[in-house]
Amino acid sequence: MWLSSVRTFVDPLELQADALENETAGAKTARRFLEFLTAHPNRPLCLAEICTALGVRERTLRGACEEHLGLGPIRYLTLRRMHQARHALLSADALNTTVTRVAMEHGFGELGRFSVAYRSLFRESPSETLRRQSNQVGTIS
How many other β-carbons are positioned within 10 Å of the β-carbon of residue 39? Predict the structure, then answer.
């Protein structure tokens, strides 16, 4: 389930370029959705809250996200945060960073679920990613 989502993850910049070229209602909704996520990067969000903020119905948001992102809004949000967390782990100073801190900073409050989903998506645990990064840094110096 998660692995197939890795292949369909869309960079927000790609969608913004697409939305500017194709000013459809769905593209505008999807772009506003991405702008909302960018404005609230670390806060846990629920679908109802997002829809209220955007002034659209859940069905409208789901349709726009599926059409322009290839995923539903919550799945997109989760994958986006997973990729951001991975990037943070890969660029972190392993001596001064913990997986818990990175997970919490990216809106994941349930650390066990985060770890399981991370392993499923990236085929390694978050701590392995952080450790691997520290080993690479150690060999470069």
Answer: 9
User: 77-140 has which CATH code?
Assistant: 1.10.10.60
pLDDT per residue rounded down to tens, the chain (141 residues): 444 444 455 565 555 555 455 568 899 999 999 999 989 877 778 899 999 999 999 999 999 999 999 999 999 999 999 999 999 999 998 888 999 999 998 888 899 999 999 999 999 999 999 988 666 655 444
Q: Quote the CA–CA distance of 95 and 42 in Å, as a whole number.
A: 23
Where do the domains of the chain lie? 2-73, 77-140
Global pTM reads 0.74
